[in-house]
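Render this sequence as a predicted structure.
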Amino acid sequence: VQLQASGGGLVQAGGSLGLSCAASGRTFSASVMGWFRQAPGKEREFVATITSIDATTYYADSVKGRFTIARDNARNRLYLQMNSLKPEDTAVYYCAARSRSNIATTLSYEYDYWGQGTLVTVSS
C-alpha cells in the first residue's frame, strides 16, 4: 500500500481543516487505517483509527469530539475532518495502514505503511 496525505495548511484557532489520504494497492479495504501526528520536538502520537470491516473508530482523548475519521473503500481514501482546531493541534499529520491484522491499535509500530505527512499549522 502506498499512501499520500494532503490537505494540510494554515488555519486560525477555532477553524476547520480536512485531510485526505489517497491509497494505492489492493489491500486498502482490508487494512486498518490510522492518523498520527508529530509536533516539533515531540514524539509521534496517535490521533485516530478506523477498522476495515465495520469502520469502528477510536480517537485520542485530545481530539475526541473535534476530529472525525472516515474511509471510502471504493475510492481508496481515508479522511480526517478536524474542527475547533487549537494551536496544540499544530503538527505534521501522517496517515498509516495496518495490513497485518484487522484489529485496531493506537501503537504506531503496529502499522505497516506510512504516508509522507502533511503539515497543519493552527495560529492563535
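Summary. The CA atoms of residues 31 and 101 lie 7 Å apart. The mean pLDDT is 96.
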